[in-house]
């Protein structure tokens, strides 16, 4: 009796496990659309440049207000798309 129960239960558990794994792939491959450039975006290139120079000179930078992209930078990024 236990051998026949094991023969039924084992494939059933394997099928349930495979079904659970196959349902995960669609959710994990979701990538949101990139947002359009905005003047509210941080100017990452400028921040990196300043912090790199500060590190070379042994200075620690603490940003109170992060620099934002100018409207000209945003316009250039939109044109490049």
TrEMBL record:
PROSITE patterns: PROKAR_LIPOPROTEIN (PS51257). This is Lipoprotein. It comes from Vulcaniibacterium tengchongense.
């Amino acid at each position: 009796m236990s051998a026949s129960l094991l023969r039924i239960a084992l494939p059933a558990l394997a099928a349930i496990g495979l079904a659970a794994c196959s349902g995960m792939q669609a959710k994990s491959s979701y990538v949101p659309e990139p947002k359009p450039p905005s003047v509210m975006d941080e100017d990452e290139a400028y921040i990196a440049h300043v912090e790199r120079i500060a590190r070379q000179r042994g200075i620690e930078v603490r940003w109170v207000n992060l620099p934002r992209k100018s409207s000209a930078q945003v316009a250039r990024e939109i044109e490049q798309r």
